[in-house]
Amino acid sequence: MVDIAPSFPAAKSELTLLMAVSAELSDASRELLSGLFPEATLLEAENGFAALQQFCVASPTLVLMTTQLPLQDGFVSCQRMRQQVTTAHQEMLHRHSLHLPRLAPLIVLLHPAPDAAVIAAAAAAGATDLLAFPQEQQLLGYRLKQQLAQWQTQRQQQLHYQRLEISEQVANMGHWHWNRVTDEFYLSPSLRKLLHIAANYPCERLESLIDLFERDDRDVLYDAFKQLIFSDKPISMSVALQQGREKPRYLLQSAIAVRDSSGDISDIHGTLQDISAMRELEGRIDLLANFDAHTGMANRYLFSKWLGEMVKCHRNEGQRLAVVHISIQRMTVFNEIFGRSAGDQLVKEWAQRLTHGLQRCASQRSGRIGGIRFALALSYISSPDAVVRLLQGLRTQLEAPYQLQEHQIDNMGARFGVAFFPEDGQDVESLMNCAELASRNLCHKSGDSICCYSPQMNTYTLEHYQFEKRLKLALEHEEMVLFYQPKVRASDGVIVEYEALIRWFDPQHGLIPPGQFIPVAEESGLIIALGEWVIWNACEQLAKLRLEPGDDSKVPRISINLSSYQFNQKNLIEIVQQALQLNGVNPQLLDLELTESAVMEDVERSVSVLNNLKGLGVTLSIDDFGTGYSSLSYLKRFPIDTLKVDRSFVMDISTNEQDRCIAHAIITLAKSLDLQTVAEGVENREQLAILQGMGCDLIQGYLFGKPLPAAEAFKQLR
Predict the structure, then answer these.
(1) Torsion-angle region of residue 624: left (phi > 0), alpha (psi -120 to 50) or beta?
(2) Residue 642: its H or E element
(3) Contact at 8 Å (CB) between 63 and 108?
(4) What is the dihedral of CA 486, 491, 494, 497, to 10 degrees?
(5) Which of 423, 420, 421, 417 is nearest to 441 (CA)?
(6) How many angstroms separate the CA atoms of 575 and 560, rounded?
(7) CA gyration radius for the chain?
(8) What is the Cα 406 distance to its own chain's centre?
(9) Nearest to 270 by CA among 289, 279, 257, 288
């Protein structure tokens, strides 16, 4: 088996001895040390200077040195060795190093016949021991082994405490100990460092430690220590250091009591661990758990908690409470057109406006409860009318134009559903459900944006949800079909063009007209998929109408309607281009109809998009001209080919002078701009005659044909 574990260099653990003796004692000393410590590394020095140099380099554990050495005697050498150890230790403390401090080495001096003066000099120099050698050679061997064993025991203790200190610093903690018998109080170096207490600062009582914390925590700590002493209850609690720092520091105080053999508490041991980072992380987690990260508003969980507290309070006081569900209209389509990043930016600004609009409303709570859904809780309301008035003012702020990069967005509506406590619901869930039902009830109410809940909405909302679900499945199951209505030349009635109109053939309910499902498609965002489906199927139909490859002489043009959602779609150009190319369709056979209001939303962008579409070779028409903005100054900038006279001006053209004048003005304007005109909604010969007299180019209406499936509509071409 191959060992793939990393290898690290082993620490030096062998025993190092330094021998500095006179020449006549060298053989005997070498023999003694080799016999006692056969695995030790033995270094030798001939004089005092050499011994000190070897000591500084090798840091030996044991030094055996005679007092009578050349150049520098053993007393001076011993004293300087001790000084070198002290200096190195001070440097280590100055660097706050975590390396194991150097344990004082054993320095044994040898003297032929030591007297009192020699013994005093050896002690003053810092010698570990002084022996006569070679007279006491046997005793020397015994003493050396004993001293080395004690040294190694001290070394193990030192390692233990040093490892404890390192572990405490890694854990950002320290320990303390109180002996209740002697009243001795001890703080570990790690704890002093943690609490920024200088080594010489007195902290000799437990009260001195407790006084470092905030006043409220001190009182709790005193009570906890009383319980520890009298009931043996361990302590584990968070405490805060006194302020005066950039940010608060929190520590976890833990303590236990130790009893002696008689059962009395003799000692109390405690630890303090810095948990500031953990508290900060808990704060961030709490923020993420309770607040929406994108808008900073309360999320659904926190808002529901607030609402629950408000319901309880209002129930006790017998007061009314209003819950409002707010949704952003057309957001799904906006994301499809401008992308999720722009959508996030819009939602953020929306939330800022909502928060700002509620600043003067003291008794309220608000939150973001979903992607484009927000909620309000309004306390102590005087009447439903007061809530409606408040929401009307809020709606004005929310629906004001938004500026996102180079685009001005001015059609982002707000929808408000309102439910009241206690009449509409008795708890959080029912109130929020009723408010949401009221909001959904607005989707088919043109012009309304504020709705109060009523019990009848439950059935309607379920039906609306099921209808939206059916529409989505209809797209997947290819239940959509295109009907075609002919456009004929006004002069001779020859079919030259067809308009493709989408229909939904439901297997259970039959043919569903667009007036029923288009609003739902716009509301749900399915209008984008529907529009793309129409483009592709119209191009496929053009390809089928070609009699021979490359022969487009008898193929009529097909026009399709582009909704404002599609026109604002980022990849519209690519979709049209691919549909044309993959079906092998001549672009001149495809006409794209756009409403006047759609192209006027953002004129500069509209000019760019229309030019790009025109570059593909398709023709462009303005549908329902005269019913929208009618900004004639911009009309000349749009690269369009056709103006359509809306059916509202054609319906009473034979009896209404104003309609007749408007239709005539549109046709005259088109001719002056070299544009083709189409009149829609023509149902009788009288209307036809008037339009022919005005010089209208194409006629569309029931007089020449209703919208029919492709198989029936195109029979007229044969």
Answers:
(1) left
(2) strand 642-645
(3) yes
(4) -40
(5) 417
(6) 14
(7) 47
(8) 26
(9) 257
Could you identify the residue written with the tokens 């799904």? 332
Question: How many residues are recorded in the chain?
Answer: 718
Q: Where are the beta strands (DSSP E) in 226-354?
A: 235-240, 250-259, 265-274, 321-328
d(CA 268, CA 121): 45
Amino acid at the residue 275: I
Torsion on CA atoms 71, 72, 74, 78, rounded to nearest 10: -150
Q: How far apart are CA 331 and CA 326, in angstroms?
A: 13
Computed from CA positions of residues 545, 546, 548, 554, in that sequence, does the dihedral angle turn out positive or negative?
positive
Q: What is the pLDDT of residue 92?
A: 55
Query: Which tokens go with 356?
Result: 């700002």
Average pLDDT over the chain reads 83
Q: Is residue 118 over pLDDT 80?
A: yes
- Selection from 62, 64, 15 nearest residue 39 by Cα: 15
Which tokens hold the place of 652? Answer: 């009473």
How many other CB atoms are found less than 10 A from the CB of residue 239?
Answer: 21
Strands, sheet with 184-187, edge to edge from the N-terminal-most edge strand:
184-187, 173-179, 265-274, 250-259, 235-240
Three-point CA angle 409, 330, 406, nearest 5°: 20
Which residue has tokens 């409470």?
Answer: 321
- Which H or E element spans position 691? helix 685-694
Closest by CA to 287, choosing from 299, 305, 300, is 299
Q: Where are the beta strands (DSSP E) in 507-640?
A: 510-512, 557-562, 590-595, 619-625
- Global confidence as pTM: 0.49
Q: Helix (H) and strand (E) counts for the chain?
A: 26, 27
Q: What are phi and psi of 201, to 5 degrees?
A: -85, 130
Beta bridge partners of 495: 488
Amino acid 367: pLDDT:
92
